[in-house]
Write a structure and sequence with these properties.
Largest sheet: 6 strands, antiparallel
Number of domains: 2
CATH class of the largest domain: Alpha Beta
Distance between the termini: 47 Å
Structural class: alpha+beta
Strand content: 35-45%
CATH superfamily of the largest domain: Probable tRNA modification gtpase trme, domain 1
Shape: globular
Radius of gyration: 18 Å
Order of helices and strands: EEEEEHEEEEEHEEEH
Number of strands: 13
Number of helices: 3
Length: 190
């Protein structure tokens, strides 16, 4: 509650899913919340994927991900494969012109978005995910939806030893706990 004038007013400030959780550095691996950005799912209308991709290129300088598991763009504006016939626009608010070609849904408040980075990040994820995330199989820019321990997650490789991990907002503390436990186990092996 905040004191205003003669009464108390509820503080309705927006909090991220990571609110109250600290960044971690265990061994050579770090875990931190990604800077909050606009997140919008793009689901092309039937037969409109190419037109959507062209409109995205004009409006945002990036295309709709061309194949399953791919990404386009750069750090300030990325489009990641987010499921069958769906992409997630990360960064800018979507240009209004995109609504002619796809259903647009704001997902900004619905996800916890973190980055796991450092030598051994792959090994940490290997303890939690049933897929091969080694660089030879999961290249820079690759994206997938998979299970992370007992949660569904989106994982994108941002760099050689850096991953973006997204889970539903309600799973933020569970993700933190599971990654911290895996980071501690990985550090103990070194």
């Amino acid at each position: 509650m905040i004191q205003r004038g003669s009464g108390l007013v509820a503080d309705l400030g927006v909090k991220t899913a990571w609110d109250g959780l600290e960044a971690l550095k265990i061994g050579a691996v770090t875990l931190a919340e990604s800077a909050p950005q606009s997140l919008t799912t793009l689901a092309p209308f039937r037969g409109q994927e190419a037109a959507l991709s062209k409109a995205m290129t004009v409006a945002h300088g990036l295309a709709f991900p061309p194949v399953q598991g791919s990404t386009t763009g750069k750090k300030s504006a990325r489009s990641i494969w987010f499921g069958r016939d769906m992409a997630l626009l990360i960064g800018p608010d979507p240009d209004a012109s995109l609504a002619k070609y796809a259903a647009l849904t704001d997902q900004s408040a619905g996800w916890a978005v973190v980055e796991l980075a450092g030598l051994g990040a792959e090994d940490v994820l290997a303890r939690l995910c049933p897929v091969d995330l080694r660089l030879a199989q999961f290249d820079i820019g690759a994206s997938l939806r998979t299970e992370l321990k007992h949660m569904m997650a989106s994982i994108c490789r941002l760099d050689k030893d850096r991953f973006q991990i997204m889970v539903f907002r309600s799973m933020a503390r569970t993700l933190y706990h599971d990654l911290k436990t895996a980071m501690e186990a990985q550090a103990a092996r070194r």
